[in-house]
Design goal:
This protein is mainly alpha-helical. It is built from nine helices and no strands. Helix 5 runs parallel beside helix 7. The chain starts with a helix and ends with a helix.
């Protein structure tokens, strides 16, 4: 209060952190009222993409997160970021989807809610802690994830072997001995992917 410059910087940081609330609210209203039509856009997604340069996914997360907070945690929308953290829209979207779509135990959802709304934990950490418990992959998705990871690892190893050969770090004969089974495995995985 005694230093206007300092107070202004604090106020700007608060506005910056809370700006997604304002954008989410404005997008929600334009979507509800179909106000984008008077500006020549046939669909909300077209308006967001062409005029605002927002991806559909981003607009959906902003509007979904704002609507979730408005109905399920309106006190968060009144925060200024000083006394309590302002959660990111990405973390709020994860929480929204968890509460609406998952079959996770109530205690897990309560813990997630605390992390997101009370502590302002960012999405990468939230996802690392809760993704498997809240959005578990079925066996087919898990297998596909493993196959993708294996193919990527094989490709990277083959690139490294080629570089090692070019730099004369590994003898030619040893490179050939290592690359041959890798190529066979890559071919097998390629045929498996094509058959699926």
């Amino acid at each position: 209060a005694h230093d206007p410059e300092r107070a202004e910087l604090i106020a700007r940081v608060r506005r910056f952190k809370a700006s997604w609330f304002e954008l989410g609210e404005a997008l929600t209203e334009i979507k509800r009222s179909e106000g984008y039509k008077k500006w020549g856009h046939a669909a909300f997604e077209d308006y967001c993409k062409k005029e605002l340069h927002l991806k559909r996914e981003t607009a959906d997360k902003l509007t979904g997160s704002f609507a979730f907070l408005r109905t399920r945690a309106p006190e968060v929308l009144r925060r200024d970021g000083r006394d309590a953290p302002i959660p990111t829209y990405q973390a709020v979207d994860f929480l929204r989807r968890a509460e609406e779509e998952s079959e996770a135990p109530e205690e897990t959802l309560t813990e997630l809610r605390r992390h997101v709304l009370d502590e302002g934990t960012p999405l990468p950490k939230i996802s690392r802690i809760y993704r498997e418990a809240i959005f578990p992959l079925d066996a087919e998705e898990q297998n596909e994830k493993h196959l993708t990871s294996l193919r990527s690892t094989i490709n990277r190893l083959m690139e490294l072997m080629a570089q090692a050969r070019a730099d004369h770090l590994v003898p030619e004969q040893l490179c050939a001995e290592v690359e041959e089974p890798l190529a066979r495995l890559a071919g097998h995985l390629g045929r498996k992917a094509a058959a699926a």
